[in-house]
Sequence to fold (1052 residues):
Amino acid sequence: MSETKTNPNSWTTEITDIQPNRVAVRGYDIARLMGNVSFGAAVYLILRGELPDEKIGRLMDAILVSSIDHGATPPSALAARTVASTGASLSASVAAGIMSINESHGGAIENCARQLTLIITRVHETGSGLDDVIETVLAEMKASGQRMSGFGHRIHTDDPRTARLFELADEAGVCGPYVEAALAVERVFASSGKRLPINVDGAIGALLADLGFDYEVMNGMFMIARTAGLVAHVNEEKTRQKPMRKIDPVDHSYDGHPARDLP
Amino acid sequence: MSETKTNPNSWTTEITDIQPNRVAVRGYDIARLMGNVSFGAAVYLILRGELPDEKIGRLMDAILVSSIDHGATPPSALAARTVASTGASLSASVAAGIMSINESHGGAIENCARQLTLIITRVHETGSGLDDVIETVLAEMKASGQRMSGFGHRIHTDDPRTARLFELADEAGVCGPYVEAALAVERVFASSGKRLPINVDGAIGALLADLGFDYEVMNGMFMIARTAGLVAHVNEEKTRQKPMRKIDPVDHSYDGHPARDLP
Amino acid sequence: MSETKTNPNSWTTEITDIQPNRVAVRGYDIARLMGNVSFGAAVYLILRGELPDEKIGRLMDAILVSSIDHGATPPSALAARTVASTGASLSASVAAGIMSINESHGGAIENCARQLTLIITRVHETGSGLDDVIETVLAEMKASGQRMSGFGHRIHTDDPRTARLFELADEAGVCGPYVEAALAVERVFASSGKRLPINVDGAIGALLADLGFDYEVMNGMFMIARTAGLVAHVNEEKTRQKPMRKIDPVDHSYDGHPARDLP
Amino acid sequence: MSETKTNPNSWTTEITDIQPNRVAVRGYDIARLMGNVSFGAAVYLILRGELPDEKIGRLMDAILVSSIDHGATPPSALAARTVASTGASLSASVAAGIMSINESHGGAIENCARQLTLIITRVHETGSGLDDVIETVLAEMKASGQRMSGFGHRIHTDDPRTARLFELADEAGVCGPYVEAALAVERVFASSGKRLPINVDGAIGALLADLGFDYEVMNGMFMIARTAGLVAHVNEEKTRQKPMRKIDPVDHSYDGHPARDLP
Fold:
């Protein structure tokens, strides 16, 4: 009699089922998804396990579009270009850009969502008003040397992407306690004379939290979107620039297509 | 009198214009793009410089959806999980996956497009028929130890994504000489008794070439799509598995949602 | 009148001075260092700012040699090989290996040093005996779900590198309170029936702490040493294996030069 | 009767043998290597399979010391610092630096060795004199838009590391046809009025070729050495600089220990 030897390293995954001539993401045949759902909806599916309704699918696309690129200023673009300028492959150069998405770049999405949770939980626990809780929490943060993530921007005083995201989220009916809390934080800042409006990272953090995303994959949304921008930057570096140039992080300007409106 | 000292490292970019309270990708205000174009269309825009029409935008989404994940079998998923299992950050783990997209994984997109160009050019130059040229080219490749990229698959004998992509491309009216040549290669293989159907990489390579993409960014499409799958794999590794486990590249199975159809 | 415009991004570094025809590391002409100090001594210099004496220089070399490779078992070797098998460059493949050196792989060096500091500080603060403090600290760790880093090994019950490192450290006269504390932890484990001897990471952590290294660069010693092993693994993968193979993390064996002694 | 099922993915490695309580690199017990050979000698062993004699071991250390760092000017240091400034881990930041070692940075080592091989082979095949062959080869290169790697430097007109390396190589008795050819190339350049002396990369390429290293691992020597410098740069960035600063690639200076001589 022979015994079946079990492999102790055998493991399972819940993401995608691969069978001969069949690929199914979270249960859905990929050929059926293709052409029927947008990439934003497919991203929601693969990260959450369920397909979103059409409006949320469109919101997901808008979130991805909002983060597709921010020119040559962010460290991810500069790191990718620096690596590309040495003769690295497209994939290695893009990877160096992805590796730059951390606490200080893109990380405000997750951090803001976590801090808003703190505020919302405190409201539930204490029964105090939202603005009162925010004042207390901001004072506590200041005392311990922390700062609220997702508010204010180095370049934009009024981030054009934030208003648009909230507008689309409103249309999709997904604005919940996180967006409410984020707007309240902005208001409390303003009433104390600080102009620190919600930036695009803060807005995405609040929206993803209202949609029910896990904190751990929130910055992943930014990585997915920005990979597209990084591919464009690496390709531009390789085609328009000389190898090993000194990449000035400040002294660059835009010489592309002039401003135009949608057709 | 003062002289203006010019910075020799000053440089320009054509991708995105960043001004206070304004972000414009290839000339289009990003807030206008958000909600009005899909992410697939925005990817086309950032890589090509122009917005696609709606049908091509939808095809772009379908291409991205087709490549979003392929389970735990590809080296990109295994590399990302291996790095994640050591306690690496989400961004470093995903980056390791991106770094695995090269010549032998994802690279068939670009390679297939280049090889089809060779065939198409030869037809134009010699005036010979497409199938004759392909027979000659395949014989030359065999003699020099090369092989045609984008045909056949380790797992799928009839890749479900290929037929769907060509169907959608047909609807969008973009099938041109590259798709024609790819189908002819498949036919020539078949007539010599070889079952080597176009795989998803070959199909994407042919379509991107017919759409006019530069070879250099073609594999970038795969990176953009797959980043989503990699985020899902890294998150699953961190939440469902123990650190430093031995990740078996073969002995894994799917235990996620059972097969289901679109709503 | 002209004003001098200061660049707000101007910055300084204390590591290496580059002048035409002169490179000086921490003040020492690199051409003078070459041939006069070992690489281990140069690593000490660049990380600490001062040259070590000759015995400590030799100990640094021994630490680097001890970590140069650990075969095909560690995730860094597997990640580097997985990326290499896709056709990645040597540098991208080695980088994927480096990215795997974190909390759960190599990280015990820093963690062990930090935990030993806790023990040593507690002895100073309370005036209690070393073994008593260790018993208390281990009990606290157990209660809070933590575990002592740098003790025990998946493969070695008696790590051959540990004894040798302590022997060489003893010759160099650098064993101080950290090595003493590490040996005491091992003893306390043993007296409670647990066979958890100091492993090579724990030994290096204790030694680097006794030498006065900052915690933040400790795992860097492991990265420097292991880069050599990773170059060897990537080169072997590329020369002895086929692209895209399934890299089994367990079922591999050694077929190199048989055991031999130093000449 | 039971059959033994063979794992088709079983594989072997020639680098390091791992047994319980025994680690042997290329056949040598690692505990025996520790304290008895320098890290440079161990690097030679792991890359070549044999231990070098003592003089060559010392030369290996000198090669590693020569490449340990080149200040803040190279793209590897800038990429590592850019990634570090976003809050990335030490290992991810160092990895970004390693990924920058390619064709245009560090790659001259391998390229120079390959080009010198071409020259040496041509001498053997044609029976012509070395200088004549070099003149022809340089003319051919110029005609095809290539340039000789390993000669000239952006900063150094007379690289202090080159002379020292050749001096030590001479002492070790390893200068062979590659060093001879490199010196001849320098001479031919000079006789045509071009001041393009051998730089440190060219010198290392010639020496590694004379030592018999495979081309494929040559740039690996640079990666091993530079990992030490990258650890120092990343640590300095994290301890002396603010997150997300604009890292100027030109406007930086040295403020470390003043010039000093060996004790």
In short: The CA atoms of residues 86 and 244 of chain D lie 6 Å apart. The mean pLDDT of chain D is 95.
